């Protein structure tokens, strides 16, 4: 149904990729997305040891014979060290995974150019998630195979340039000669069609995949995403130089209050720890931790299977593109 640089590069049906989500992007969800025609994701930060990480890759391969991405996030962390990043890259090369989504610092700066050379020699496609043209150009220069153009709408940690997807996608598509994938605000076929019209070769979304049958998160979280609207997320963390976008809740209110009065990391870290987030996902307590979700929650209205979601998105995208073509005749 689709023929883009992304579908051709990976041999997938739909140019729809799952983005990294701590604790959620594990073999069951990853394989369900890949089996549905998209590109699933294993988030390496879920795993503390080489054995755990390699086992997750092998478990995913037992559940699907389709390609999937692995995320490596090189951002300041209490639990994940530079040694972890090196290990993740080594295992990905040895296992010859289809592709890597790098977020945070580029691999050449986080662990050295030898990591890029090792991965490319193994045939692993490298994509860097960026929020600016300058970072996209750097990624192309050092040998990445594609760019994730992440607008300020995205959940997680958007760049503090604060540029929207509508501007960032065409700017980056015009500035590099490698495929661009739009990130931020993607949740349905209309947003997929919009991204393709802006010059992207595919889309990446994460929040939308939380509200699917196969995502191993408490049903209360899924129901909350269906209920919430696009204005109910907020940027936090500016005071510590690591801004994030999360769902408005009691934890975020507490974090914002600390930042407003000039509180530091010692007060913030206990409210932002990964264990709290895992507890929220598992137990369904929406207020216990920052839940990093995108403004696209305004477009989430149901909890389908991954197959139904991707099939519906593809149909809607085709209809939207066809309607736009008719309007221009």
List the helices and strands and how they pair.
Layout lengths: L4 H6 L5 E3 L8 H9 L4 E4 L6 H14 L4 E7 L7 H14 L3 E6 L2 H4 L2 H9 L3 E6 L2 H10 L3 E5 L14 H11 L4 E4 L5 H9 L4 E4 L1 H4 L8 H9 L5 E4 L7 E4 L2 H11 L4 H8 L1 H10 L22 H22 L2
Parallel strand pairs: 1-8, 2-3, 3-4, 4-5, 5-6, 6-7, 7-8
Antiparallel strand pairs: 9-10
Describe this structure in words.
The strands form two sheets. This protein has an eight-stranded parallel beta sheet. It has a two-stranded antiparallel sheet with strand order 9-10. Strand 2, helix 3 and strand 3 form a beta-alpha-beta unit. The chain is globular and about 55 Å long. It has two domains: 239 residues, Alpha-Beta Barrel (TIM Barrel); 77 residues, no CATH class. The model has no long low-confidence stretch (mean pLDDT 96). It is α/β, with parallel strands linked by helices and 329 residues long. The protein contains 15 helices and ten strands. The longest helix is centred in the last third of the chain and has 22 residues.
Helix content: 40-55%
Could you tell me the CATH topology label of the largest domain.
Answer: TIM Barrel
Strand order of the largest sheet: 1-8-7-6-5-4-3-2
Spatial extent as radius of gyration: 19 Å
CATH superfamily of the largest domain: Aldolase class I
Largest sheet: 8 strands, parallel
Low-confidence stretches: none
Could you say which structural class the secondary elements and strand pairing correspond to?
Answer: alpha/beta
**What is the domain total for the residues?**
2
The CATH architecture of the largest domain comes to Alpha-Beta Barrel
- Measure the end-to-end span: 23 Å
Percent in strands:
5-15%
């Amino acid at each position: 149904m689709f023929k883009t640089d992304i579908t051709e590069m990976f041999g997938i049906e739909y140019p729809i990729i799952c983005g990294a989500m701590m604790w959620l992007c594990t073999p069951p969800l990853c394989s369900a997305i890949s089996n549905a025609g998209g590109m699933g994701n294993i988030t390496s930060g879920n795993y503390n040891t080489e054995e755990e990480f390699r086992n997750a890759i092998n478990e995913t391969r037992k559940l699907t014979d389709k390609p999937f991405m692995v995320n490596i996030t090189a951002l300041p962390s209490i639990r994940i060290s530079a040694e972890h990043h090196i290990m993740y890259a080594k295992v990905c090369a040895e296992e010859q995974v289809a592709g890597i989504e790098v977020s945070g610092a580029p691999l050449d700066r986080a662990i050295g150019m030898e990591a890029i050379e090792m991965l490319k020699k193994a045939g692993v496609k490298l994509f860097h998630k960026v929020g600016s043209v300058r970072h996209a150009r750097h990624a192309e220069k050092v040998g990445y195979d594609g760019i994730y153009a992440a607008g300020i709408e995205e959940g997680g940690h958007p760049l503090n340039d604060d540029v929207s997807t509508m501007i960032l996608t065409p700017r980056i598509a015009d500035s590099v000669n490698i495929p661009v994938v739009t990130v931020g605000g993607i949740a349905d076929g209309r947003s997929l069609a919009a991204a393709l019209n802006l010059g992207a070769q595919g889309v990446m979304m994460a929040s939308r995949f939380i509200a699917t049958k196969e995502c191993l998160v408490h049903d209360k979280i899924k129901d909350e995403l269906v209920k919430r609207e696009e204005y109910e997320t907020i940027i936090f963390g500016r005071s510590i130089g690591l801004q994030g976008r999360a769902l408005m809740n009691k934890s975020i209110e507490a974090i914002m209050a600390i930042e407003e009065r000039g509180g530091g990391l010692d007060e913030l870290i206990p409210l932002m720890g990964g264990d709290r987030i895992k507890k929220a996902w598992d137990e369904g307590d929406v207020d216990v931790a920052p839940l990093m979700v995108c403004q696209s929650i305004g477009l989430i209205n149901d909890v389908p299977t991954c197959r139904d979601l991707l099939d519906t998105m593809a149909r809607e995208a085709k209809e939207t593109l066809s309607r736009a073509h008719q309007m221009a005749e």
